[in-house]
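user: Please review this fold.
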Amino acid sequence: MNPLRVAVIGAGAWGTALADFLSDIGHQTVLWIYEEDLCSRMQETHVNDLYLPDFNLHKDLEFTSDLVEASSSGQDVILSAMPSHVVANIWDNLSTTIHEESTIVSVTKGFDPISFLLPSQIIENSLKDSCDSVNKIVSLSGPTFALELVKRNPTAITAASFDLESGVKIQKEFSSSSFRIYYSNDPIGVQVGGALKNVIALAAGIVDGLEVGLNARAALIVRGLKEISRLALEMGGDPQTLSGLSGMGDLILTCTGELSRNRTVGYRIGKGEKLSNILDSMISVAEGVATAPIALSLSKKFAVEMPICEEINAVLFEEKDPLESLNELMKRPFKEERT
Protein backbone atom coordinates (compact mmCIF):
# COMPACT_ATOMS: atom_id res chain seq x y z
CA MET A 1 0.00 0.00 0.00
CA ASN A 2 1.30 3.45 -1.02
CA PRO A 3 0.15 6.30 1.25
CA LEU A 4 -2.18 8.58 -0.70
CA ARG A 5 -3.46 12.10 -0.13
CA VAL A 6 -7.24 11.65 0.12
CA ALA A 7 -10.10 14.12 0.57
CA VAL A 8 -13.45 12.69 1.64
CA ILE A 9 -16.25 15.09 0.68
CA GLY A 10 -19.22 14.52 2.98
CA ALA A 11 -19.30 13.69 6.69
CA GLY A 12 -22.42 11.59 6.99
CA ALA A 13 -22.07 8.20 8.65
CA TRP A 14 -20.57 6.48 5.59
CA GLY A 15 -18.23 9.30 4.62
CA THR A 16 -16.99 9.60 8.20
CA ALA A 17 -16.49 5.85 8.53
CA LEU A 18 -14.51 5.71 5.28
CA ALA A 19 -12.34 8.69 6.27
CA ASP A 20 -11.58 7.05 9.62
CA PHE A 21 -10.73 3.76 7.91
CA LEU A 22 -8.50 5.36 5.26
CA SER A 23 -6.58 7.23 7.96
CA ASP A 24 -6.19 4.00 9.89
CA ILE A 25 -4.59 2.15 6.97
CA GLY A 26 -2.07 4.93 6.42
CA HIS A 27 -3.54 7.42 3.96
CA GLN A 28 -3.23 11.16 4.61
CA THR A 29 -6.94 11.92 4.84
CA VAL A 30 -8.99 15.10 5.17
CA LEU A 31 -12.75 15.00 5.80
CA TRP A 32 -14.88 17.88 4.47
CA ILE A 33 -17.86 18.69 6.68
CA TYR A 34 -20.74 20.83 5.43
CA GLU A 35 -21.90 21.95 8.88
CA GLU A 36 -19.35 24.43 10.25
CA ASP A 37 -20.46 23.91 13.86
CA LEU A 38 -20.10 20.16 13.51
CA CYS A 39 -16.65 20.64 11.98
CA SER A 40 -15.57 22.74 14.96
CA ARG A 41 -16.77 20.09 17.39
CA MET A 42 -15.03 17.32 15.47
CA GLN A 43 -11.76 19.26 15.44
CA GLU A 44 -11.99 19.46 19.23
CA THR A 45 -13.29 15.99 20.08
CA HIS A 46 -12.52 13.76 17.05
CA VAL A 47 -16.11 12.48 17.32
CA ASN A 48 -18.93 12.92 14.78
CA ASP A 49 -21.63 13.38 17.41
CA LEU A 50 -24.33 13.86 14.75
CA TYR A 51 -23.88 10.78 12.56
CA LEU A 52 -21.44 8.44 14.36
CA PRO A 53 -21.61 9.23 18.07
CA ASP A 54 -19.63 7.16 20.58
CA PHE A 55 -16.75 6.47 18.17
CA ASN A 56 -13.38 8.17 18.50
CA LEU A 57 -12.04 8.80 15.01
CA HIS A 58 -8.44 8.17 14.01
CA LYS A 59 -5.97 10.62 15.54
CA ASP A 60 -4.43 11.50 12.16
CA LEU A 61 -7.74 12.30 10.45
CA GLU A 62 -8.06 16.02 9.64
CA PHE A 63 -11.26 18.05 9.33
CA THR A 64 -12.28 21.12 7.35
CA SER A 65 -15.43 22.95 6.26
CA ASP A 66 -13.55 24.70 3.44
CA LEU A 67 -14.28 22.89 0.16
CA VAL A 68 -11.29 24.40 -1.66
CA GLU A 69 -8.96 23.41 1.15
CA ALA A 70 -10.32 19.88 1.08
CA SER A 71 -9.98 19.47 -2.69
CA SER A 72 -6.43 20.78 -2.68
CA SER A 73 -5.60 18.20 0.00
CA GLY A 74 -6.94 15.33 -2.11
CA GLN A 75 -4.28 15.41 -4.78
CA ASP A 76 -4.40 11.64 -5.22
CA VAL A 77 -8.05 10.76 -4.48
CA ILE A 78 -11.27 12.77 -4.06
CA LEU A 79 -13.89 10.54 -2.44
CA SER A 80 -17.42 11.85 -3.00
CA ALA A 81 -19.71 10.80 -0.13
CA MET A 82 -22.71 13.12 -0.11
CA PRO A 83 -26.46 12.39 -0.55
CA SER A 84 -27.57 12.05 -4.16
CA HIS A 85 -29.69 15.22 -4.21
CA VAL A 86 -26.68 17.49 -3.54
CA VAL A 87 -24.07 15.84 -5.78
CA ALA A 88 -24.66 18.18 -8.72
CA ASN A 89 -24.49 21.35 -6.63
CA ILE A 90 -21.36 20.37 -4.71
CA TRP A 91 -19.53 19.12 -7.78
CA ASP A 92 -20.34 22.29 -9.71
CA ASN A 93 -18.35 24.08 -7.01
CA LEU A 94 -15.74 21.38 -6.56
CA SER A 95 -14.87 20.50 -10.13
CA THR A 96 -12.80 23.62 -10.88
CA THR A 97 -10.56 23.13 -7.83
CA ILE A 98 -9.46 19.50 -8.00
CA HIS A 99 -6.01 18.37 -9.03
CA GLU A 100 -5.86 17.20 -12.64
CA GLU A 101 -4.41 13.82 -11.64
CA SER A 102 -6.83 13.06 -8.80
CA THR A 103 -8.82 9.86 -9.07
CA ILE A 104 -12.49 10.43 -8.26
CA VAL A 105 -14.25 7.83 -6.11
CA SER A 106 -18.03 8.04 -5.68
CA VAL A 107 -19.81 6.18 -2.88
CA THR A 108 -23.18 7.94 -3.27
CA LYS A 109 -26.20 5.71 -3.87
CA GLY A 110 -29.11 7.21 -5.78
CA PHE A 111 -30.02 9.36 -8.79
CA ASP A 112 -30.03 13.08 -9.41
CA PRO A 113 -33.63 14.24 -8.69
CA ILE A 114 -33.78 16.43 -11.82
CA SER A 115 -31.68 14.75 -14.51
CA PHE A 116 -32.04 11.16 -13.18
CA LEU A 117 -28.32 10.70 -13.79
CA LEU A 118 -26.23 8.32 -11.69
CA PRO A 119 -23.62 9.87 -9.35
CA SER A 120 -20.64 9.13 -11.61
CA GLN A 121 -22.49 10.64 -14.57
CA ILE A 122 -23.25 13.81 -12.60
CA ILE A 123 -19.59 14.16 -11.63
CA GLU A 124 -18.42 13.47 -15.18
CA ASN A 125 -20.73 16.17 -16.54
CA SER A 126 -19.54 18.69 -13.95
CA LEU A 127 -15.91 18.00 -14.81
CA LYS A 128 -16.50 18.32 -18.54
CA ASP A 129 -18.50 21.52 -18.21
CA SER A 130 -16.03 23.26 -15.94
CA CYS A 131 -12.52 22.20 -16.83
CA ASP A 132 -12.42 19.54 -19.54
CA SER A 133 -10.80 17.28 -16.94
CA VAL A 134 -9.62 13.80 -17.73
CA ASN A 135 -10.03 12.58 -14.14
CA LYS A 136 -10.99 8.93 -13.91
CA ILE A 137 -14.08 7.99 -11.87
CA VAL A 138 -14.52 4.86 -9.74
CA SER A 139 -17.83 3.86 -8.12
CA LEU A 140 -17.45 2.08 -4.78
CA SER A 141 -20.56 0.20 -3.70
CA GLY A 142 -21.69 -2.92 -1.87
CA PRO A 143 -23.23 -4.33 1.31
CA THR A 144 -21.91 -1.97 3.96
CA PHE A 145 -23.05 -0.39 7.21
CA ALA A 146 -20.94 2.49 8.54
CA LEU A 147 -21.17 1.22 12.11
CA GLU A 148 -19.58 -2.07 11.10
CA LEU A 149 -16.76 -0.44 9.15
CA VAL A 150 -15.72 1.73 12.11
CA LYS A 151 -15.57 -1.47 14.18
CA ARG A 152 -13.40 -3.01 11.42
CA ASN A 153 -15.82 -5.88 10.92
CA PRO A 154 -15.05 -7.91 7.77
CA THR A 155 -16.49 -6.15 4.74
CA ALA A 156 -16.45 -6.80 0.98
CA ILE A 157 -17.33 -4.22 -1.67
CA THR A 158 -17.03 -3.51 -5.41
CA ALA A 159 -14.93 -0.85 -7.14
CA ALA A 160 -16.34 -0.26 -10.62
CA SER A 161 -14.84 1.84 -13.39
CA PHE A 162 -14.61 1.94 -17.17
CA ASP A 163 -10.92 2.61 -16.58
CA LEU A 164 -9.17 -0.57 -15.49
CA GLU A 165 -6.09 1.17 -14.10
CA SER A 166 -8.12 3.45 -11.82
CA GLY A 167 -10.37 0.66 -10.60
CA VAL A 168 -7.44 -1.60 -9.79
CA LYS A 169 -5.62 1.30 -8.11
CA ILE A 170 -8.50 1.81 -5.68
CA GLN A 171 -8.84 -1.93 -5.19
CA LYS A 172 -5.19 -2.19 -4.22
CA GLU A 173 -4.76 0.98 -2.17
CA PHE A 174 -8.05 0.90 -0.25
CA SER A 175 -8.06 -2.81 0.68
CA SER A 176 -7.04 -4.13 4.08
CA SER A 177 -7.33 -7.30 6.16
CA SER A 178 -10.90 -6.30 7.06
CA PHE A 179 -11.94 -4.51 3.84
CA ARG A 180 -11.83 -6.58 0.64
CA ILE A 181 -12.47 -4.92 -2.73
CA TYR A 182 -13.42 -6.61 -6.01
CA TYR A 183 -13.01 -4.84 -9.36
CA SER A 184 -15.83 -4.51 -11.91
CA ASN A 185 -15.92 -2.85 -15.33
CA ASP A 186 -19.67 -2.14 -14.98
CA PRO A 187 -20.19 1.13 -13.05
CA ILE A 188 -23.70 1.46 -14.47
CA GLY A 189 -24.90 -1.87 -13.09
CA VAL A 190 -23.09 -1.30 -9.79
CA GLN A 191 -24.70 2.10 -9.26
CA VAL A 192 -28.19 1.06 -10.36
CA GLY A 193 -28.01 -1.79 -7.87
CA GLY A 194 -26.86 0.54 -5.10
CA ALA A 195 -29.65 3.01 -5.80
CA LEU A 196 -32.63 0.72 -6.32
CA LYS A 197 -31.94 -1.66 -3.44
CA ASN A 198 -33.06 1.20 -1.17
CA VAL A 199 -36.51 1.17 -2.79
CA ILE A 200 -36.87 -2.58 -2.35
CA ALA A 201 -35.67 -2.23 1.25
CA LEU A 202 -38.60 0.09 1.94
CA ALA A 203 -40.90 -2.66 0.69
CA ALA A 204 -39.10 -5.29 2.77
CA GLY A 205 -39.50 -3.13 5.85
CA ILE A 206 -43.21 -2.76 5.17
CA VAL A 207 -43.54 -6.55 4.87
CA ASP A 208 -41.78 -6.97 8.22
CA GLY A 209 -43.93 -4.27 9.79
CA LEU A 210 -47.09 -5.99 8.57
CA GLU A 211 -45.82 -9.25 10.14
CA VAL A 212 -46.79 -11.35 7.13
CA GLY A 213 -43.82 -13.68 7.44
CA LEU A 214 -40.34 -14.49 6.18
CA ASN A 215 -41.66 -16.24 3.06
CA ALA A 216 -43.07 -12.93 1.88
CA ARG A 217 -39.83 -11.07 2.57
CA ALA A 218 -37.76 -13.65 0.67
CA ALA A 219 -40.10 -13.49 -2.33
CA LEU A 220 -40.00 -9.71 -2.29
CA ILE A 221 -36.19 -9.60 -2.27
CA VAL A 222 -35.88 -12.01 -5.19
CA ARG A 223 -38.53 -10.34 -7.32
CA GLY A 224 -37.12 -6.95 -6.39
CA LEU A 225 -33.73 -8.04 -7.65
CA LYS A 226 -35.38 -8.99 -10.92
CA GLU A 227 -36.84 -5.50 -11.30
CA ILE A 228 -33.44 -3.92 -10.59
CA SER A 229 -31.75 -6.19 -13.13
CA ARG A 230 -34.28 -5.34 -15.84
CA LEU A 231 -33.75 -1.63 -15.44
CA ALA A 232 -29.97 -1.94 -15.18
CA LEU A 233 -29.92 -3.77 -18.52
CA GLU A 234 -31.93 -1.07 -20.26
CA MET A 235 -29.70 1.66 -18.80
CA GLY A 236 -26.56 0.02 -20.17
CA GLY A 237 -25.51 -2.22 -17.29
CA ASP A 238 -24.85 -5.95 -17.17
CA PRO A 239 -27.58 -7.95 -15.36
CA GLN A 240 -24.92 -10.38 -14.11
CA THR A 241 -23.43 -7.55 -12.06
CA LEU A 242 -26.60 -7.60 -9.96
CA SER A 243 -25.84 -11.13 -8.76
CA GLY A 244 -22.74 -9.80 -7.00
CA LEU A 245 -21.91 -7.65 -3.99
CA SER A 246 -23.33 -4.40 -5.36
CA GLY A 247 -26.61 -6.05 -6.34
CA MET A 248 -27.75 -9.11 -4.43
CA GLY A 249 -25.29 -8.52 -1.59
CA ASP A 250 -26.35 -4.94 -0.93
CA LEU A 251 -30.01 -5.82 -1.41
CA ILE A 252 -29.95 -8.63 1.15
CA LEU A 253 -28.16 -6.50 3.73
CA THR A 254 -30.41 -3.49 3.31
CA CYS A 255 -33.62 -5.55 3.31
CA THR A 256 -32.75 -7.57 6.42
CA GLY A 257 -30.25 -5.59 8.50
CA GLU A 258 -31.44 -3.86 11.66
CA LEU A 259 -29.15 -0.90 10.86
CA SER A 260 -30.83 -0.20 7.50
CA ARG A 261 -32.46 3.25 7.46
CA ASN A 262 -34.65 2.38 4.46
CA ARG A 263 -35.88 -0.86 5.97
CA THR A 264 -36.63 1.05 9.19
CA VAL A 265 -38.75 3.60 7.32
CA GLY A 266 -40.68 0.79 5.64
CA TYR A 267 -41.11 -1.08 8.93
CA ARG A 268 -42.62 1.98 10.59
CA ILE A 269 -44.98 2.48 7.63
CA GLY A 270 -46.04 -1.16 8.00
CA LYS A 271 -46.81 -0.42 11.64
CA GLY A 272 -49.12 2.41 10.62
CA GLU A 273 -46.95 5.55 10.94
CA LYS A 274 -47.18 8.41 8.44
CA LEU A 275 -44.19 8.90 6.15
CA SER A 276 -43.92 12.61 6.99
CA ASN A 277 -43.73 11.89 10.72
CA ILE A 278 -41.08 9.22 10.17
CA LEU A 279 -38.87 11.49 8.07
CA ASP A 280 -39.21 14.35 10.56
CA SER A 281 -37.85 12.08 13.29
CA MET A 282 -34.71 11.08 11.35
CA ILE A 283 -31.30 12.78 11.15
CA SER A 284 -29.78 10.67 8.36
CA VAL A 285 -31.21 10.43 4.85
CA ALA A 286 -33.23 7.39 3.75
CA GLU A 287 -32.33 7.53 0.05
CA GLY A 288 -35.07 5.11 -1.00
CA VAL A 289 -37.83 7.67 -0.42
CA ALA A 290 -36.33 10.10 -2.94
CA THR A 291 -35.29 7.29 -5.29
CA ALA A 292 -38.71 5.62 -5.51
CA PRO A 293 -40.40 8.18 -7.83
CA ILE A 294 -37.24 8.41 -9.95
CA ALA A 295 -37.24 4.64 -10.32
CA LEU A 296 -40.88 4.76 -11.41
CA SER A 297 -40.11 7.45 -13.99
CA LEU A 298 -37.15 5.45 -15.31
CA SER A 299 -39.30 2.30 -15.56
CA LYS A 300 -41.72 4.21 -17.78
CA LYS A 301 -38.95 5.82 -19.83
CA PHE A 302 -37.33 2.47 -20.58
CA ALA A 303 -40.61 0.50 -20.70
CA VAL A 304 -39.49 -1.83 -17.89
CA GLU A 305 -42.07 -3.67 -15.80
CA MET A 306 -41.49 -2.83 -12.11
CA PRO A 307 -44.66 -3.68 -10.14
CA ILE A 308 -43.02 -3.58 -6.70
CA CYS A 309 -41.69 -0.12 -7.45
CA GLU A 310 -45.14 0.99 -8.58
CA GLU A 311 -46.78 -0.21 -5.38
CA ILE A 312 -44.11 1.37 -3.17
CA ASN A 313 -44.76 4.73 -4.79
CA ALA A 314 -48.50 4.32 -4.23
CA VAL A 315 -47.94 3.54 -0.54
CA LEU A 316 -45.43 6.36 0.00
CA PHE A 317 -47.09 9.17 -1.92
CA GLU A 318 -50.74 8.21 -2.44
CA GLU A 319 -51.34 6.78 1.06
CA LYS A 320 -52.39 3.44 -0.38
CA ASP A 321 -52.91 0.76 2.24
CA PRO A 322 -49.81 -1.49 2.32
CA LEU A 323 -51.90 -4.66 2.66
CA GLU A 324 -53.87 -3.69 -0.44
CA SER A 325 -50.61 -3.25 -2.36
CA LEU A 326 -49.38 -6.62 -1.14
CA ASN A 327 -52.62 -8.32 -2.21
CA GLU A 328 -52.43 -6.74 -5.67
CA LEU A 329 -48.88 -7.99 -6.13
CA MET A 330 -49.97 -11.50 -5.16
CA LYS A 331 -52.89 -11.43 -7.61
CA ARG A 332 -50.90 -10.37 -10.66
CA PRO A 333 -51.25 -12.58 -13.79
CA PHE A 334 -49.34 -15.87 -13.69
CA LYS A 335 -46.06 -16.02 -15.59
CA GLU A 336 -42.95 -18.11 -16.05
CA GLU A 337 -39.98 -17.42 -13.81
CA ARG A 338 -36.91 -16.63 -15.89
CA THR A 339 -33.39 -16.14 -14.62
